[in-house]
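User: Structure tokens for this complex, please. No commentary.
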Amino acid sequence: MQALGGLKVADFSWFISGPLTAKFLGDCGAEVVHIESGTSPDNMRSTIPMRDNVPGINRSAAFARYNSSKYGLSLNLKQPNGVDMAKKIVAWADVVVENFSSGTMERLGLGYEDLKKARADIIMVSLPMFGHTGPWARHPGLGSQLTDLIGFGNVTGWPDREPNSPPGAYTDFITPYFAVCAIMATLDYRRRTGRGQYIEISQYEAGIHFLTPVIMDWFVHGRQPNRVGNRCRGVAPYGVYRCRGHERWCAIAVFTEGEWRSLCGVIEKPSLAEDPRFATGLARVENCEQLDGLIEEWTGNRSAEEVMSLMQEAGVAAGAVLNGRDLGEDAHLNARGFYKELVHPEIGHHRYLLPPFRLSKTPGEPKMAAPCLGQHNEYVCKRILGMSDEEFVQLLNEGVFD
Amino acid sequence: MGMICDRNPGQESMFGVYRALDLSDEKGFICGKTLADLGADVVKIEPPGGDPGRNIGPFYHDIPRAEESLYWFAYNANKRGITLNIETTDGQKIFKRLAKTADFVIESFSPGYLKNLGLDYSVLSQINPGIILASITPFGQSGPYRDHKTADIVSMALGGYMYLTGESDRPPVRIGFPQAYLHAGMAAASGAMLAHCHRQLTGEGQWVDVSIHEACAWIPPDSYIFWEMNQLLEERHGAVRVRPTTGARMRRIWQCVDGYVSFDLYGGRLARNFMTPLVAWMAEEGMAPDFLTEIDWATFDYSAVPADIVDGISEPVGRFFMGHTKEELWQGGIARRCCIYPVSSPGEVGRSAQLAERDYWVDLRHDELNCSITYPGLCIRSSEAKCSLRRRAPLIGEHNEEIYGGVGLSKEELVVLRQAGVI
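Assistant:
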């Protein structure tokens, strides 16, 4: 049984925030149609990595990552009959997801008022950058830059260097959770009242929730934090430590006296526990650099995995810094079945991530590999919308799927 | 579109008919907060004396009191609060009584802890078959690391994001404000809401297992797939991106007069949006060299461009930015639809014209502190249903009387329970 069996979703979105939202729904059993332009497709399709470094509209693993469990429909929304077709999908759908620049859906004739005419109780969810109102409403941008506008860049990195802005479109991994929660609440609301609704989640406003105490600290005290590397106020040792090999590191964090004593045992320096430089929490914070050096003397001769296991066995929080290869091979992620291998028509066998929530009775997982561009045009027209062969061929000839 | 997204135009609450019991510590605060923001009645349950999450700074006026942590305020607003020692037999009985009418239970104890108390999912579901239990743990309820400990830096390390963050000549670095538990808490809220959707159709609840490790493994966008597709390891390069294929250094963060701005070098469709207006602006100010104005950005393909050409493009762009302030570049960019974003400080976010215009910030009254504190408002805005930021985070045991009274405990019983250390 699927958590969202019977739910129908029209996904007009691109890049990451919208597609990932709809992917989570699809993985959990919703029937999702991903709609994109045939001539100007989702930008992620041209984003590397491509299978074997060979470019191709259907070869991007970056696109695939956010589009499992979806049917792929290509539509030319610049043609009136393309828009008519989109409205047929909307009439079929319970939920519409989009994340274009503010105003785009209205320009296409697919604003909320238009969609309500196609289906009166439609739930439409927009994930604009800034929202549909305000002086920046129409300004374009990407999650990678929004990450800096919100302030993640400013707090990340070393005090003596430029900001080490978190890479990739960091905020694109925040907004989808708010969107999934909102969609589930609107479905409940519709069951109770019979009414659909329009939901707007500004990605700017969502991302700020991951820095709330920092912003409140400014409102209350006017404080502007400096970059602190990996330091955690009042806690030591806390950081990443160099291990044996090229770019191998292990994170270690010690909060309690018990953990401190355990750590001293693990690093084979039990006398450190009583050493006046480190015997109390305050002393450890004061002498943290010296302490880090002593710990690194020990970690430097061991593999990151060995450091992690020995620390964890002794009850100290520790974790190797995983690179891309390590992530795929991670024993724990694999034991929990975090990766699901599927076969993609052009990428071939490759692995998709499970959603980061496991439902005991209705577990979700990627069900179909991400669609090639327009892969399910015929399926969507005939099986979902109930068109005849003739109708489908006519649309094809009219260039609706271009 | 002519449609105003008022935060609470409607009469009917989006999700107000549901109740959640929130046993979590900082690993799960934002989960209950999100349900509460949607309108649910979320009851934060703390051990007598207060939740350890109250000890996380910063504190109001830097005085470290349990009821004055800004961290606690931030992620427990909109909840009511009671104290209950679920390690006592009386506490367990009372918890079960509360669970009978609750729709969600949120917890972040170590795996097996609730089972030892006789309060795990199998017990709760007998009392209330519809109940949804959301559990947030460092590594989930199964697998070889199940009993391992974590911290923000440990989860960010194991999730793979740290490997990509920071300078190439220094250790990997975490985001300077803890993020791991926020991702996991939001994943738990999502899972609980998905389970709720299933319950609406079937009446049946279930157990939602969230591993902080897995929530963090979602954050690095490319590192695993670069390995899987091309056997390439993405490395960290601070404020630049290095194209793995050509070795070209593409700057992301640029210095300007009074700080830094974020500007991505892109080719293809994004170059039309980003490079074309920038080069035109540089030309207006006589700062665009000829070779730059001659590039056709619509067809420019960085994947094929050698590293020295990218350096040649970066040099005049960097010089242009060095002649302007953050605000000039941001406002000038907005006027030209050119994406030059400031690297903002918290104060710049707090003063944002966009957020002010949209009434984003909400002042909540803290009578005990004799002040109001400004909070981020809801990011979910509905045309129809009511959801709002309604109340500050609870004081320790603030709602004991009204909530325990609601399940039939008398005043005398409450006195006895308090003396016994149960509430």
